[in-house]
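Example 9 (inverse folding). The structure is encoded as follows.
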């Protein structure tokens, strides 16, 4: 029986298993037939049809791209609040640095405005440079009344028929004490600028701060000269063995006085001016700079109304032309000497090699000297031009730089040597020991 069953099983036909594609095709064909057969049985509804996705949700979540900001934050071993705090502190530090830089730049600009402006001419384009010119320093008031120095009663009277100006020194009150005993020995000097031909002095009053002078002094002044003159009254403290100390001064412009009436008034003493406004004469010269060849040409043309230095009322003037570089003396040339003349005519030119970089740091010093054969030469007046100069001198220098290859001539008033030297501020040379000089001379001699 068992053998019959095994034979029967082995003789059964093989079972056919349909593939997935055939099943799908069969289903789609069957569904098409059903749709064709039952198309009349379709039900149309007005309700929206909701499509339900049967896809698994574990694949729908989007993973962040590798290297994103959030991924970077996740890798930092700190809590989020600490990371945000660090970023906030960093941004605050950057803002504070920017604020400090802005404040520093503003402070630098203010300091530059307070200092004497130094103009650096970077280009020579032929345009005018009047906008770069500093204001003239002649109008600067040196007399600031920060410390009370007392007051002075004076009088002014002008006689037009005799061309005489009478200056009266009446009295002073509450003068500044200059001695150790809280007192002073005051006296007054009176003179007229710019000529300063005569200087008068009052008597000295001992140990008083309220002296009564009651003295008058007469000056010969024509009407045209009166309009350009200034009466100067300086109060000094007398010292027998040391230099007399100045207490204060008054300066009255004579062009403002009434010529028909006597003027008598009190005025507070002011701090004395640093330099006197003397009439030292004028000088005319031309400047020409050629940037391509780096040549600076200075032509000394003439001078007029120079100060008489000799006993005979004349002078023997010559002109010294000097260049300074970085506040140090550099090059020097001199003109010929003109004997016994206060209005000399030179017409001499000098050429210096100055590069475009050096022209921004160089100063030109023009000085007039009186030649003496038996004694030391005397200075008659001085001035300097360059980026450190002011007024007409700076304007002349700027015109030269803005007009290359073209000579620019101009008249200039001479100033005192003390005033120009103080403005220049030249660096002093390092003193060389005498033994070192002797050794160098011996080496040169035996070479």
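The amino acid assigned to each position is listed next.
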């Amino acid at each position: 029986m068992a053998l019959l069953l095994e034979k029967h099983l082995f003789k059964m036909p093989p079972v056919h298993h349909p593939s997935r594609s055939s099943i799908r095709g069969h289903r789609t064909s069957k569904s098409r037939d059903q749709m064709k057969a039952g198309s009349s049985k379709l039900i149309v509804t007005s309700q929206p049809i909701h499509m339900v996705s049967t896809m698994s949700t574990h694949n729908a979540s989007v993973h962040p791209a590798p290297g994103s900001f959030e991924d970077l934050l996740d890798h930092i071993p700190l809590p989020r609040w600490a990371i945000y705090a660090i970023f906030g502190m960093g941004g605050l530090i950057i803002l504070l640095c920017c604020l400090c830089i802005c404040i520093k730049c503003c402070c630098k600009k203010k300091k530059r405005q307070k200092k004497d402006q130094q103009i650096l001419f970077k280009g020579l384009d032929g345009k005018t440079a009047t906008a770069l010119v500093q204001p003239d320093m002649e109008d600067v008031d040196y007399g600031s009344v920060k410390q009370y120095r007392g007051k002075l009663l004076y009088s002014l009277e002008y006689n037009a028929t005799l061309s005489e100006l009478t200056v009266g020194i009446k009295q002073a009150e509450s003068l500044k004490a200059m001695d150790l005993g809280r007192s002073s020995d005051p006296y007054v000097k009176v003179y007229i600028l710019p000529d300063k031909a005569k200087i008068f002095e009052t008597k000295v009053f001992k140990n008083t701060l309220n002296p009564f002078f009651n003295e008058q002094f007469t000056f010969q002044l024509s009407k045209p000269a009166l309009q350009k003159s200034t009466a100067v009254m300086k109060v000094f403290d007398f010292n027998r063995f040391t230099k007399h100390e100045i207490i204060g001064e008054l300066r009255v412009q004579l062009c403002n006085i009434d010529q028909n009436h006597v003027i008598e008034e009190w005025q507070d003493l002011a701090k004395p001016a640093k330099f006197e406004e003397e009439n030292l004469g004028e000088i005319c010269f031309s400047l020409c700079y050629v940037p391509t060849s780096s040549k600076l040409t200075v032509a000394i043309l003439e001078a007029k109304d120079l100060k008489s230095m000799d006993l005979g009322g004349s002078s023997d003037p010559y002109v010294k032309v000097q260049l300074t570089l970085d506040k140090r003396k550099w090059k020097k040339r001199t003109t010929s000497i003109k004997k016994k003349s206060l209005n000399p005519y030179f017409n001499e030119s000098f050429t210096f090699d100055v590069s475009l970089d050096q022209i921004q740091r160089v100063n030109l010093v023009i000085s007039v000297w009186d030649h003496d054969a038996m004694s030391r030469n005397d200075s008659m007046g001085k001035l300097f031009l360059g980026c450190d100069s002011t007024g007409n001198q700076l304007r002349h220098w700027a015109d030269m730089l803005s007009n290359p290859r073209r000579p620019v001539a101009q008249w200039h008033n001479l100033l005192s040597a003390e005033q120009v030297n103080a403005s220049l501020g030249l660096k002093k040379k390092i003193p060389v020991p005498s033994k070192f000089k002797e050794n160098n001379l011996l080496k040169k001699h035996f070479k």
